């Protein structure tokens, strides 16, 4: 039953990312952590995100803002190892709780729509990248801080989608190098990969037909449910 739930959520999360540029780890991460534990759940979320980044970027790389992607990547990559070191020393319940809070904080940031002028300056990219790198290690969720930055800068959807993949792909590669590969059953990993590709393939033709508000609402609702589940698991 858990494997079926993982496959369904991975497919839906992949479709959401194909439509909006972010959302995969925000939706799939909490369930993967619940199903596999914090360590393997995060590793699998990051590994699947890496594959999805490469798949989407292959068709959108011409629209990527590579300079902006690099400015986000450097501070994020620098904080991956320290974040992994600290997380590795915490008890499992605390890590689950922090992961749940991290996802809820990301949802709140995106929903708030708040604007701050400093975010448009170089410090904005440093702060967004650093926070994204830490959240990627904690819960496999790197998207919310950079999504907030993109919203501030008003990039058109195809540019935002391509640039976020150009940033996330190397970040996920670095994170996976530090954390190590998933250690679960190969059959489970293969099933998740097939679900990932199927979800992205089904959604891709509709990328310019479904409003970003609808996609965002679905992703945020599912992420909130997943985060609350993590907090409930941590409490028990």
Describe this structure in words.
- Keywords: Cell membrane, Membrane, Transmembrane, Transmembrane helix, Transport.
- This is Probable membrane transporter protein.
- By secondary structure, this protein is mainly α.
- The chain has one domain.
- The protein has 10 helices and no strands.
- The chain has helices spanning 2-20, 24-36, 38-60, 66-87, 92-112, 122-139, 143-153, 157-179, 186-203, 212-235.
- Helix 4 (66-87) crosses helix 6 (122-139), helix 5 packs parallel to helix 7 and helix 5 packs antiparallel against helix 10 (212-235).
- The longest helix is centred in the C-terminal third of the chain and has 24 residues, at 212-235.
- It is globular and about 40 Å long.
- It starts with a helix and ends with a helix.
- 48% of the residues are buried.
- The model has no long low-confidence stretch (mean pLDDT 81).
SSE arrangement:
Layout: H1 2-20, H2 24-36, H3 38-60, H4 66-87, H5 92-112, H6 122-139, H7 143-153, H8 157-179, H9 186-203, H10 212-235
Helix pairs in contact: 1-2, 1-9, 1-10, 2-3, 2-10, 3-6, 3-8, 3-9, 4-6, 4-8, 5-7, 5-10, 6-7
Largest sheet: none
| Helix content, binned percent | over 70%
How many structural domains can be distinguished in the coordinates? Answer: 1
Number of strands: 0
The unreliable regions are: none
Residue-averaged pLDDT, rounded? 81
What is the gyration radius calculated from CA atoms?
Answer: 16 Å
Content-based structural category: mainly alpha
Pattern of helices and strands: HHHHHHHHHH
What form results from the Cα inertia axes? globular
> What is the count of helical runs?
10
End-to-end CA span: 21 Å
Residue share in β-strands: under 5%
Membrane topology: Multi-pass membrane protein
Main location: membrane
Protein name: Probable membrane transporter protein
Family: Belongs to the 4-toluene sulfonate uptake permease (TSUP) (TC 2.A.102) family.
């Amino acid at each position: 039953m858990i494997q079926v739930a993982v496959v369904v959520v991975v497919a839906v999360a992949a479709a959401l990312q194909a439509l909006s540029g972010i959302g995969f780890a925000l939706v799939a991460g909490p369930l993967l952590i619940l199903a596999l534990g914090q360590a393997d759940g995060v590793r699998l979320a990051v590994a699947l995100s890496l594959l999805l980044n490469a798949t989407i970027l292959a068709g959108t790389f011409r629209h990527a803002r590579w300079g902006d992607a690099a400015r986000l990547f450097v501070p994020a990559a620098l904080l991956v190892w320290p974040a992994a070191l600290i997380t590795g020393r915490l008890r499992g319940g605390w890590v689950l709780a922090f992961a749940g809070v991290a996802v809820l904080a990301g949802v709140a940031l995106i929903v708030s729509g708040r604007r701050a002028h400093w975010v448009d300056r170089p410090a904005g990219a440093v702060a967004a990248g650093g926070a994204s790198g830490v959240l990627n290690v904690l819960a496999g969720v790197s998207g919310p801080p950079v999504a907030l930055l993109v919203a501030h800068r008003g990039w058109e959807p195809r540019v935002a989608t391509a640039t976020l993949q150009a940033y996330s792909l190397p970040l996920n590669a670095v994170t996976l190098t530090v954390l190590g590969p998933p250690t679960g059953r190969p059959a489970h990993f293969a099933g998740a990969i097939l679900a990932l590709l199927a979800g992205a393939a089904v959604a891709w033709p509709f990328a310019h037909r479904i409003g970003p508000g609808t996609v965002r609402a679905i992703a945020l609702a599912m992420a909130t449910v997943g985060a609350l589940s993590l907090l409930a698991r941590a409490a028990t």
